[in-house]
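Person: I keep going back and forth on a fold encoding question. Show me how you would write down a chain together with its backbone fold. Please set it down just below, with no commentary around it:
Helper:
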Amino acid sequence: MSIPRLSAAQPMPESLRGGVIALGNFDGFHRGHQAVAGAALAWARAEGRPAIIATFDPHPVRFFAPDAPPFRLTTLDQRQELFEAAGADAMLVFEFGAELAGTTAEDFVVRLLGERLGVAGVVTGEDFTFGKGRGGNVAVLRELGARHGIGSRAVGPVSEDGAVVSSSRIREALEAGDCATATHLLTRPFAIRGEVQHGDKVGRTIGFPTANLAMGSYLRPRYGIYAVTATLPGGHVVHGAANMGIRPSFDPPKELLEPHFFDWSGDLYGQEIEVEFHHFLRPEAKFDSLDALTAQMEADCLKARDLLAGRG
């Protein structure tokens, strides 16, 4: 990763002061987020200023509702790479905790954006809120910013297929197993990145070794079998079929993402890989025997091969 990851808790480096910031959660960095970031980058380039894309981590929902089910679409590392690919000069992370939650809208603009970060301009979505008790919105940002030399612009929602593009809409699609809609709204397949861990090694005994990944804070897509691709260490891309769920044919139930890769063998334990979800094949099912499970897995792999080769 070449762009720096900055903390909003620290003063902005001198070389990046006077920048234009795209400000939002940007979890998933979907089409709507990309429109906000694109407006900030265009503004920054037009005035010869640094272009910075910000994000909040942990997500404010995790602070206010710590028991909420996992819902993240991207990790910080993934966002950093997406922001870099979009053309940002840096990623700015607002660590969301009690201090930030208790910061008034005025202090957020004047003390944080103005004094600490030296921001010249801010671009948000039209529905952006900030500050203690959500006391700030785009109108407040415009008014406070104008008083303190900070320009602001708001970007309207992006619509696809007659509905606004949102992280919630993408989560709903994934929870329904609708990979096509999620991919279209994200502009890329939903991808889970993680370290390969040791499993029960049942897969290798029946000819289908898997690379097991914990789901962590990611949203749980619909449990079932998927056609997937994966990027392995070194950038090598492989095709495969993956079980996402609790493996009902085995005891005890254990939630994992278990991709099996076609025409590939090797040791991935302890290494980081990224698995992309392309097609939902079927729901999870419990089988009466290993033979029945093996036969179904062979059928799943054939179907996944065809779909990933564009023959589905």
